[in-house]
Amino acid sequence: MAEVTLTNVWKIYAGDVAAVRDVSFSVNDGEFLVLVGPSGCGKSTTLRMIAGLEEISKGRVAIAGRVINDVPPKDRDIAMVFQNYALYPHMTVRDNLAFGLKLRKFPRAEIDRRVDNAAQILGLGEYLDRLPKALSGGQRQRVAMGRAIVRDPAVFLFDEPLSNLDAKMRVEMRKEILQLHKRLGSTMVYVTHDQIEAMTLGDRICIMHDGIIEQLGTPEEVFYSPANLFVARFIGTPPMNIIEGVLKREGKALVFEAPPLRAELPAAWEEKVGHLEGKPAGLGFRPRAFGVLSNDAQPPAGAPVFTGELDVAEMLGEELLLHLNAGKNRFIVSCDPHQHNGSDTTIHVVPNFDKAHLFDMASGKNVTL
User: Fold this and answer.
1) Residues contacting residue 182 through CB under 8 Å, at least 6 positions apart
2) Residue 80 to residue 266: CA distance in whole angstroms
3) Residue 295 CB contacts under 8 Å (≥ 6 apart), including other chains
4) Order of strands, sheet of 290-293, starting from the edge strand that comes earlier in the sequence
5) Are 3 and 27 in contact (CB under 8 A)?
6) Tens digits of per-residue pLDDT, 158-214?
7) Shortest CA distance to 355 belongs to which of 262, 290, 273, 261?
8) Which of 48, 143, 201, 340 has its CA 20 to 30 A from that of 265?
9) Which of 295, 301, 294, 306 minimizes the C-alpha distance to 333?
10) Any residues with CB less than 8 A from the CB of 125 and at least 6 apart, and which?
11) Bond preceding residue 304 cis, omega within 30 of 0
């Protein structure tokens, strides 16, 4: 078993600067967990504490049930892949892969077996006699991953390994990392600032901000059911629209108002959101949670209609992003390019409340979960 468990972990630097604050989570045996968040959120520091490259200020880190707070990195049964490939330029690919095993005095036959196995997994067989300078960026990153594979560790740790690659190569390498995880079945912890990487790679995603965990869940959970405003605005391209307004009572109904936008909230929300009556609230919709009305179309009976003035239209091939202004409100609508003829500047859309969320603007909490 290679479960990784962090319990109430802190990292405090000089001057009482807390980079990681009371972080607790578990990575199941064989799971791919992604730590994601903006720069300075504590994700790399958390990974480095698992690796033993940063001292743990408070709390406990365990691998396979063994507390490793005071265990040297070389004895933690982990392998780490960094953003910087850190290959030895004067060594061939074969020697780079074998170097760590030679230091540990593995038998020559075992070294050859592991190197050949890693080369086969990563498609490096024809490059084994080349120097790193004769490889592309993607090939160098494969060598860096191969150096981790030959270790046959209990846990793989990745610290933004694709940041130095161009967009096309990142897509290819994401696919290769997923294939690697499927083939090896190993426990993997991966750090990135790129939420697309997080969504495509992770079995679960741990979203961090200012040293704390904002939400931990599957890609579907964090996308469709964000725990708070930070997650809603961080996950998704484009992110979730948050229209800021106030809840008012009209008879038995709760109405959301953000002039000129207005919508009666679903009756099923009453119990969860009623306490926000008269208080600032944020109504959240993903860009795809709107239906665009043609000029002569009628909305479904009782459905609210939001009307906005077109600011910018972004053509993305199979998707068109309409940036709309409605008073002080700004929101983005994703639609089929054929739904907009290019000349309309006033756009009418019907929001889908089955895919909507309401946020308490004071606490940031999603109150519709």
Assistant:
1) none
2) 49
3) 344, 348
4) 290-293, 346-351, 306-315, 320-326, 329-335
5) yes
6) 999 998 888 888 898 899 899 999 999 999 999 999 999 999 999 999 999 999 999
7) 290
8) 340
9) 306
10) 116, 119
11) no
pLDDT in tens, 124-156: 999 999 999 999 988 999 999 999 999 999 999
The answer to whether 358 and 226 have CB atoms below 8 angstroms apart is: no
pLDDT in the model for residue 289: 96
31: left (phi over 0), alpha (psi -120 to 50) or beta: beta
Tokens coding 21? 């604050």
Q: Contact at 8 Å (CB) between 164 and 83?
A: yes
Q: Which residue has the tokens 């962090």?
A: 6
> Which pLDDT score is estimated for 1?
61
Which SS3 state, helix, strand or coil, does residue 148 take? helix
pLDDT value of position 252: 86
Residue/partner pairs of 198-202 with CB below 8 Å, 24 or more apart: 198/34, 198/36, 198/235, 199/223, 199/235, 200/174, 201/32, 201/34, 201/174, 201/177, 202/32, 202/33, 202/34
